[in-house]
Amino acid sequence: MAAAAQDAAGSAVLVRAEDGRAHWRLPPAAGLRLPLPATARGAAELLAEPRRLTVRACPSAECGWLLLDAGGRRRWCTVTTCGGRRPAMARAPA
Known about the structure:
Elements: H1 2-11, E1 13-16, E2 22-25, H2 35-47, E3 55-57, E4 66-68, H3 79-83, H4 85-91
Antiparallel strand pairs: 1-2, 3-4
Helix pairs in contact: 1-2
């Protein structure tokens, strides 16, 4: 991930946003390669912030998602995906 984040940082351009502030953006010319550097850049930025301490793994054995739990109360990645499975499995006949 570090190498992908470095590549993303190297190809980012400084642009002026509508709010007048400058922001680093990945150029649209990256085309279909854009998702990987954009994801790597976002992950690297998250790891540099205090919010990194709120990253949790979904406890479902079938899920590999990570989630941000800023309030300390979130348990599942989504109720409709993993959070709804456990109650449904508990109600299912054995």
